[in-house]
Amino acid sequence: MPKFESPEHLREYRRQLLARRDPKQPQVLVCGGPGCLPLGSEEVAAAFTEELGKNGLAAQVLLKTSGCQGLCDQGVRVLLRPQEISYQKVTPEDVPEIVEATLKNGQVVERLVYEDSATHEHLVHKADIPFYRGQNALVLRKLDVIDPMSLDDYLALGGYRSLRKVLTEMSPEEVIDAVERSGLRGRGGGGFPTGRKWRVCREAPGEVKFIICNGDEGDPGAFMDRAVMEGDPHAILEGMIIGAYAIGARKGYIYVRHEYPLAVKRLSHTLDQARECGFLGNNILRSGFGLDIKINRGAGAFVCGEETALMASIEGFIGEPSPRPPYPAQQGLFGLPTVINNVETWANIPEIINMGPEWFAAIGTEKSKGTKVFSLVGAVNHTGLVEVPMGTTLRQIIFELGGGIRQDREFKAVQTGGPSGGCIPKQFLDLPVDYDSLQSVGSIMGSGGMIVMDTGSCMVDVARYFISFLHAESCGKCTPCREGLKNLLFILDEIIAGRGEEEHLALMEELCAAMASASICGLGQSAPNPVLSALKYFRAEYETHIRDKKCPALVCRPLLKFTIDPESCTGCLACVRECPVGAITGKKKMPQELDQELCVKCGLCYETCQFDAVKVE
Amino acid sequence: MRLVLRNLSIRRREGGVGEEDMPLKIVEETMEPNTSEVGLTINGIFIKSHPGLSLLEAARQNGFDIPTLCYHPDLPAEGQCRLCLVEIGEYPRTRLVNSCTYPVEQGLVVQTHSEKVLQARRMVLELLLARCPKATLIQEMAAAMGVYESRFKTDDPEELCILCGLCVRTCREIVGVSAISMAHRAPGKQVATPFTEASEACIGCGSCAFVCPNNVIPYTEKDGIRTIWGRDFELQPCNVCGNYIAPKYQLEHWAQLTGDPVETFFVCKDCR
Amino acid sequence: MDQARLDAILSRYEGETADLIPVLQDIQDEYSYLPKDELKEVAKRLGVPLTQIFSVATFFKMFSLLPKGRHQIKVCLGTTCHLRGGQRLLESVGHRLGVEAGYTTKDMQFSLDTVGCLGSCAQAPVVMIDDKYFARVTVDKVPKILKPFK
Description:
Strand content of chain C: 5-15%
Oligomer: heterotrimer
Structural class of chain B: alpha+beta
CATH superfamily of the largest domain in chain C: Glutaredoxin
Radius of gyration of chain C: 18 Å
Low-confidence stretches of chain C: none
Number of helices of chain B: 6
């Protein structure tokens, strides 16, 4: 790759690049996203390499491993361009057929095509599939087009055009003004107006300022940022360089969660490319502006997604948040003005500059502009990342894109915002999703996790899960969060164990109110949300646990009773091997007996039994 | 000229930072009467305050009582205990902030004992009372707010540490040796020496024990030996009157810092 | 203490306080834990109090003060994995290996841990062994998955 000494040089390079490329060239894009990778993307890609080679097609057909293509439950996905034929559940064994039938003879391999569960129609093309049809992919647009390790791919799609425009035609004030007018709000969960944050930082006194990308996506169930960091890393970088120019920062950090080694690797490669080509370093594109960015890995602490804790850990300290004010934009990293934004926020910047703030502001609702990427997971038929305009309803997302509830079960609730959010019940399915409306029902947008639950989930168990998670992750600095979470967990465990009392509910509500107003940081302040929303919308379920000592959803193990049905039991002894306390006895090939005194209700026998012989009530 | 600790946040600034990054630790400000004063309202009463102060300092200077546990005038404020919370703003847009770190602002409306504040304070004390039922200071502060028992569970009835961090901050900021720190996260958080072994950095000064509001840190003195944090320190008697001054190791540490011969520290302050 | 091995790691950095966590991460990656002597040396070289290092080492989950097993098993307990039986899966693996989450087997072969969401939610429950992902792991699949690592 050349070093771009000037904007003209970049322009010329891009022109020549596009002239060299044939938009009609056949391409095979194997999805290498977080969903497909564990299902064998690498093996499928290797099979294609071999098969294309065998058939003499290696030069004509471009093979790429792309970023996340969505519709993760049907992985490994393969997309063929330019026809946009979408194949799913592809194994290495399917590859020879794809090459032979589709690449050589233009025929579709029917069994690998999406089948609509309602109409049983086979939908060959990506654009016809409801999961994709309902989306407005701006941030995710390039994920199934480019090879994330190829800068040429990024440039061919107009990459770094915005940076060139900013450095040659716009002053820092004009950039901030554009971001303000776009209405972009922080996508990490806070929803703070991005332009305003940049303005405060720019106006803060001092020569030395920093920009940070928060890639510490810790919400369980959320992988939007992971997909963008792995699938379109240059977009994040371009956004950051523009932001650094706007506020006057010369040094930046990308903080990536430790559990995302592939994202670290891809971003690292991206930074190397950027330095090589002159997008980072001194005098970028002959503008006089210089910047360098380094990567800091997280070390396994959810609380470091909180901005002051994140900065403390970059400085070499434990991730304990600090009270605000002072705000990071005024006094942040090393006590200096710092803009810290989420991955998705940064990834939105280049297009806002390229297409103009009015274009962005025309999408979405009055107070929540643009699109949002959600990770739609849980009890839906079709899981994966979806990007929709703000204001799309929950019903549209869950039932139209998500294809409704799995196994024909009934919708119970959707959890948004991760551990900081609340459960939203079915009466709000027509709620338009945006920052304010989610808050009005006791939840939050959060980073975009959207976990759908069916009637097989217990809302006491879900609340307990989140509180347990938060207690383990709480930094422990302040009393309301540390002691509050410990006690909430204890009370919930008592309820689950059948020792719940009527007063517990009111006590939890009182404790939650104090935690919400008295904790230092967002972790403690929003920790009550899962509990309060569950109490608000599913109070009856809690009362059943307390009064009747029963779990209607058959989840809370201490309240369950496991028995073996002698009619169904074949005596295969599989459950005997799994039982941790030896509570199951009996001769081989004879019905087994479960000793209720010894039973610890772990449910492993229930899970293991292939004959449905273990009953639970 | 008046030196004001401008940076109210705990993080250390010096050392380990590139030359172009300027640490903001101390800011010199000229104080002339009335030019830079800030006017704000506390509990309905208008007061004037120097702009570099926190709400807590301004309130206390003007006779308003705000309870604290983790605050110390000589240490950077951390906002840890949450007792100093006050309600700022005007209905319906009010929120709770901790007064020990929140700076005074022109026109701010502050309530130190609103219902929301009292509820938060009571809950914090009730939680601490469950954690440390035998801590007399907590019992007193809780009783003063009408909390006499806790509805929450106690793990260890002998626990006295409220994790206020005063000992850790004192050792780090005032004594400067950082012999102890906070280990772990919420589950199991505790004040500890490295690897919970005797700390080599400790000079036996006992400042941590002195500043602790609950007398948690055990130290014993017997036969000219002070034992603290798992180490024995030989106490140095005064060359003149013979009373024990401090551990010899601590005096040697001071001598190293000042460059004076160590014998200058072997005379107690009464005999100087 | 192998001075040369530690020097190789320290030489990658400028020796500032802010390098502490990256240095510790490199040591953890290389040694599979944080040995005491090495930490004392790092304290000297970076000018960081040993207490700060101990606080950091006990605060962040990736660090271990005790040696880890040859293979790291991480069972995901993200929300979707939890809803699909993650807890039972964890217990099953632990029971099979005779170890609890957060600990290492006596023969130092396996360390078992939980992890909060790896981002492969569509394939829940997910288990990672070293850097290999296993998707849609149900209790009956556990013996087969563990076999090649034993």
